[in-house]
Structures
1.
Amino acid sequence: MNTVAFLGLGRMGGPMAANLVKAGHTVRGYDPEHKAVDIAAEAGVDVRDSLTAAVTDAETVITMLPSGKHLLGCYQDILPSLRPGTLLLDSSTVAVADARAAADMARGAGHEPVDAPVSGGVSGARAGTLTFMVGAETSAYERAIPLLDVMAAKHIHCGAAGAGQAAKICNNMVLGVSMIAVSEAFALGRSLGLSDQALYDVASTSSAQCWSLTTYCPVPGPVPTSPANNDYGAGFTTGLMSKDLHLAQAAAEDNDVSTALGAHAMELYDRFAKIDGPHRDFSAIITAVIDGAFAKKESE
Ligand code: NAD
């Protein structure tokens, strides 16, 4: 069993840490938010009152933080307090460049870095069924496997440092674009007198079949578990989709890759966040498509 320091006990980190406790690991946690700390303590996490107190003598440090800025700041604070050869596993979604910078910092201080962002959302974090996309040296990935197995349905070694974050933003760029494409199809279908169910029955068994349609269908009815049936109560929020599309576009610009649909999707989610706020599920973007909100100028 491992002694794990878990830093960032929010909506994702809290349940991930709780699953490690359930699996028998010793988990020390830190988060500046009182609410997150209280929930984690109830789940058996040994919550400490500082980053240093949480990481001292830990064999592994897992971070689940809001952004790359938080990650790099956190590494700066903790690296001097770690025991030599600590496994540093970061599951936050951050820019590829930040993941590589964090890995360089960790290696420079004598530790083993792993970037391992996740897909599967809060429900996957609770159920221990996340997908981890891993960027690391093979030895560090192998060291992380027993912990990943507790939190994951699947983990994929994508390559060296940064490769996990690269896979995550490429995947989410497709997701953001495909949700808009599916939404436009339902808007057009309705205007042509087609029922949502008829379009779903055809598209879900034809060449338009995709996750945004068959798992996360943005209209209520055809897929009873999709957020559309719950007034788009958050699963994966518009704010997080917007964040990931910005990371994808920044990476595309840095690497001179033209991603026209990804760029347009980013603009539309940004506009939608101004209309609807960042907190509902991102599939609610269909409401703006159906209302014709994107046909209007932003100032209207
Ligand atoms: P969250 O805001 O609920 O949790 C982040 C936590 O980090 C907060 O409780 C915050 O207080 C804490 N924190 C900030 N600075 C810290 C520090 N220096 N040390 C310790 N804790 C610190 O966010 P979340 O939804 O749990 O997301 C975490 C990460 O996972 C993000 O990078 C997000 O993009 C990614 N992600 C989220 C989802 C999702 O559905 N929520 C899905 C996939 C990936």
2.
Amino acid sequence: MYAEIIVDIAAEEVDRVFTYAVPEDMQLRPGMRVEVPFGRMKKEGFVIRLKNTPDYDPEKIKTVLSAPDNYPVLLPQLMALAEEMRTRYHCPLCEAIRLMLPAQMRGNRVKIKTEEYVRLAISPDLVDEAIAKETRSKKRKLILTLLSDGEMHPVDEIRILVKDAKAALDYLKDREIIESVSVERLRSPYTGQVDEKEDRTLTSEQQEVLSEMLPALEKPCKPFLLHGVTGSGKTEVYIRLVREAVKKGKGAIILVPEIVLTPQMIQWFKSRFGDTMAVLHSRLSAGERFDEWRRIRFGNAKIVIGARSAVFAPMENLGVIIVDEEHEQSYLSQSFPQYDARDIALSRCKREKAVCVLASATPSIYSYAMARRGDYTLLEMPHRILNRPLPKIELVDMREELRLGNKSMFSRALQEKLDACIQSGQQAMLFINRRGYASSVNCRKCGETIRCSHCDVSMTYHSWDKTLRCHYCGNVMPMPERCPSCESTYIKAMGTGTQKVEEALKKMYPHAGVIRMDMDTTAGKNAHFDLVNQFRAGKAQILLGTQMIAKGLDFPQVTLVGAVMADMSLNFPDYRAAERTFQLLVQVAGRAGRGEKPGEVVIQTYQPDHYALESAVRQDYRSFFAQEFDRRKKSLYPPFTLMVRFLCDAKDMETAMATAEEIKNQITCRFGSTPLWRRILYIRADEAPIARIQERARAQVLMKLLNHPDTDQLIAVMQEMAREERAAHTVLEINPASLA
Ligand code: ADP
Ligand code: ZN
Ligand code: ZN
């Protein structure tokens, strides 16, 4: 017997199958992991196919050394998916396979954990007699009494009940009255408390949406795009759909943007599905992830909730994949291969005949466009549960505040409402969208944001050389002293972060209690659960935070939501700035008024007329979509084009720039005189917007490519170029989540 094997080396030269002989006594199946000799090394590999005859000289064929597991770690459908990814993302097959296995499994770096049990070794009929004999030891008597039920008991439990039990246990074992058993233990990652939630009677809107989806469990159909406003009760629909799938013996994968953002989703599912649910995310320890993965692989867990990579969960009989908050950029992988979890979900569902549900209160422009075109079935839940009103949103023009002499970060309106909220003992959430790096430059008098003269994006302040730069075309200008539009000197780089606001709040309301949630306060594994639970339990009246508190959380006691600097994200140098701002504000506003008391929202901005803010205030997704879609079309941004770049990083900028120039020239030489050149609308080598990260200088070749079937050929060649040996470390990015 021979096996075709993919060796786990991520290099293009070995991205093909190698034939090995299978020893007589080894049971191999496709998808199994093996160890093989490769050159003078021992390498891991995966069995792709088995065959009876080799396709070349059997003398030269080496033999498989061992098979560490006794089951295929790769399901056939996932092997097919890996093949598809190789073509789609132009990556070696083993790079795709690596995404499908717990990282620590490679090289056998996690050990299986076991737990020690004891049980009777004699027949239960004889136990009374044995107990009677133990006249000299109370401990042995007690142990035997405990075990007389015939069950296995954990040694740890016995040690708690019987002090210094070791000698007694050994004595009984030596005389073969009891025996020990070790049982593989699956580490359980979930420690948070379960927030009991019972089934609700579905509203007619929920019922309708569900009844559209259920038939798809029987008969494959188009993917669904569920557009449900915040608080419309999407989670309950997911739960019912998943339960029906499980009833039919099928499994479900629920993707959430980031586990820290969705502690409640996990709790709700956990309370309904208990141990049949697994959780996969980056905050698990390697051992926990490995155990969860195996629970899924062996069918002990039928439901998986997880972040992006959970889309590769080894679920055998897949019934449904739900992508919650499908518009989130965290579904795009940042490392090679840069897959989009939504695409993988769609492709898996198609291949495995499962139902795919993309859901959001603010669908991505791309997905909504697909639904409008009829590629997805659009389902809508336009009302909140129990006809609770959407919150009342007030837009505050911060330019006006300044004109009236209010230089604080809180407008009068927000201040008043906050006072009232705190006094009446209710809860408030404040949102500050502060990202760590360069902020935009605004005029506090007229609201002007300085924009690039060639592109539809704002200029970014670079503090080390005090310049303004366009992150799209590289345009550079010195930081002006006066506003180019009104000549005032109130021109400033914006920069208020959560800590500054926390300080101010603690001074203003010394007794209210403030919980701050951002990257810094949620570092521990369960820190986010703890903070959320503290706030829910009323330990503080104010929850302050970044994106982290913007989405998914359901606090019925919150009646006021404030967005302190709502338009900061509008000025990010990214063509998606408007989309992201709109999504964020609708989500933020959606945190208010989820309980019985209606909610109020205050959005502070310097750009009250911007269509992203205007439509967010009206919670009018369709109007926003129409305007944004139009703008993208006019300025040729995705989904009408692809933004592609080579990112080169090196010790110094000269090296990085030299590599960028070299790549740009290579592309020009290679394609300049071919028809493919017309697909490149724009190409430029330049310093990256963030020119240095962690002591590495960064340069880029930025391109805008026309979306056309043959563009893929261009990308395949570029992918090869990215892998060539160069002075600077180089990667190719396609529509990356961030162009920083
Ligand atoms: P979304 O994800 O659409 O924003 P959620 O799933 O968080 O909404 O639900 C909002 C709130 O409504 C939650 O507190 C949930 O428990 C509650 N809810 C959901 N469905 C029902 C129902 N049929 N009857 C009563 N309350 C419901
Ligand atoms: Zn001005
Ligand atoms: Zn520009």
